[in-house]
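Session log. Operator J.P. requested a structure for one protein chain; no other inputs attached. Running the standard single-chain path with token output.
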Amino acid sequence: MDDDDGESDVTVEEETVPESAEVRESPPDPEGKGGDGPLGTSQESSEEFTDAKHESLFSLETNFLEEESGGTCSLNASQDPFLQHVNKELKEKEIQAVATNSKTTHQLKWPILGQLVFSSKFQKLETFKPSKDIDLKSLHLQKPLESTWTKTNSQFVSGSPKSSSPFTPLQKELFLIMNSYRDLFYPERTALKNGEEIRHVYCLHVINHVLKANAQVLGNNSRRRSQKLGVGDDDDFRDQGLTRPKVLIVVPFREAALRVVQLFISLLEGDSKKKIIVSNKKRFKGEYGSDPEERPPNLKRPEDYEAVFVGNIDDHFRIGVAILQRSIRLYAPFYSSDILIASPLGLRTIIGGEGEKKRDFDFLSSIELLIIDQADIYLMQNWEHVLHLMNHMNLLPLDSHGVDFSRVRMWSLNNWSKYYRQTLLFGALQDAQINSVFNKYCVNLQGQVAVRNVPMTGSISHVLVQLPHVFQRMEAENLASVIDDRFNFFVNKILPQYRDAVMSHTLIYIPSYFDFVRLRNYFKKEELNFTHICEYTPKSGVSRARHFFLQGEKQFLLLTERFHFYKRYTIKGIRNLIFYELPTYPHLYSEVCNMLRATSRGEEATWTCTVLYSKYDAQRLAAVVGVERAAQMLQSHKNVHLFVTGER
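Structure written below.
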């Protein structure tokens, strides 16, 4: 096949898709050997590396606060949002009321973020507007962040005319919400546009949180030493959780973990002459970095693809990071770490499943800050892992892990940690599954903030070919039956129109792998002339299928969304297009439609495009056709709607 997008492809297939998808089909092996991918860096069985040398250096029990680094900023500590949050004491009756309380919500419009929905299950709902000017001192940043942040973030603010603020307008609004310890859902994070800007600001929040939490523990160690208190002598020093890890950052690829750690180093180091100590840095660069020469040079892929699949895209990893004043310990054992950085698959293989002998999730018991970045990519990896993680967050640990119970906060002992956990969820989509995680698992006592802007124009406006788009609405009784209803509607109403040999060159785009398997089996049973490509198809099979489809030897081609997401091949020879369901990513709709241009031999007038949708696809429909048209199409008495694109 043509070289530009044929054989010499980036080897995502071998590393990324099957690894995350294997687990979808069968539970992972308990030893976690699934990571022995081609990169050879994820051997996460018994020989998984952890740093044993620096245990005492980074221990919170045996270290004390150095005088120079003490103290937060000069402002009154009682106004520090961190202290206000962790020192807030809930009452038993407030916790009981949460189960019965309905959510109170309030909408606000912010200058940059747009439409925000504040909500809370606790008694009073407080909302706020962003202040015009932001003074770094008022943010209660721990030393040295006030000075290092300006330098670390300078690449984003130096270009703007009013660059007196150390934040970009977007960062300012996001940080105000983060620093208020509310849960946040931001569904407009894209790798091309604002991904790095957002990564910078959440890393600032993470380091600020960890430095404050550790300073509190070390300060209390010093005070206890000066008062010569033994273990359990005093109740005034409750300053920690049941286990040490406080922050969990979930990212999809090793490259993202590398960038997060580099930001941590930059935020602790700034431009000071004194380099900070980073243990195991060389090893980390080797395992999480990538060789730029590995990528074949002649690949032409869309910009968004290049931005997402950059660097080391292995998706099976987990690493502990400990921070003590101005030093960082990489590969810290989980129970000696402050911050855990992991992929959903890396967490799934250690959390394990019911009945597995070797499993551990105590390290999730005292997470105070959970960040799930690039949530939309987990829809393309394996969403089950995210749900599995959420179901194991903030449970009481099964083992004491050597904790001094006299130092544990009462709300942690009461098993109320989930009401104090702040969750920050970033993705590129308003998606029902991501929404559901935010609504179901985020119960922070400070409340939730979700950004809810509606798409005015849909991605159909980016279709450049002249093409009639026929949207067919199918009726579905309820959400549970929609999968069967779609299949029956397709088999009985849509497919008969395409069985005629005149309708050759028909591509059927299928977002769900399970729907794909069902259709493939049906096509085999009916002995239809078809070929298929999914994320598990070997390279030779892909080339053969593309060739047969282009030549017209096979009438139908079944294509899965995940194959397209990971490969982005241009499929040549399409004349008729069927979207079995609307794509997860709206821009893939226009991208697939524009593939018809790849081989136009004067038959443009006969091209067709058919899309199936139901009332449960409202969000995806709005993203393709725009919110106003979507509303009309869902309420209309007519079941068929026609759009024509590309008319001159």
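Operator note: Residues 38 and 379 are 23 Å apart (CA to CA).
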